[in-house]
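Running this now, will post back.
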Amino acid sequence: QINLPGVKYETQRGRWNYCGPANLSMAMTFWGWNGNRDIVGQTVKPNEKDDKNVMPYEMENFVETNTVDLAAVVRLGGDLPLVKRLIAAGFPVLVEKGYYETDADGHYSWLGHYQFVTGYDDGAQTVIVQDTYLDGPDFQIANEEFLQGWRSFNFLFIVVYPRAREVEVLGLLGDWAE
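Update: finished.
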């Protein structure tokens, strides 16, 4: 059981489809970046209402072009053992997943959503996420439910890390390093 300390939770509330900026901000502030969701959003979602989605490469580019000491990798095909290995080594993981929700008009529909994974509990068979929209900080989600939603985006994940620790991250990634 691990839940990484030092996460500065941010909500996406008050903004339109702002899970990308809020989650990326949490990933960066975990490593000491001095910013917030609105600074990220100015670049990756400049037209808030017209821009319905933030692509993973946009978040990776933001880290690469707006920081000196941080880097990011985006990969597909991740799995739960990899996420746990990264977290156990102190590296939280940002994932893109899908889920169903009833909207304000009563329509049951699917949507994509980013979540920042900061822990897991093998005894409870859960992962711990910082959910910027519905469930809030330190939300425990059953492994199977987490995997079902993550599958929607081909198990896409992003790791933000200090550039000085790149060799360590690449080693932890194993086959996902390339």
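The longest strand covers residues 108-121. More later if anyone needs it.
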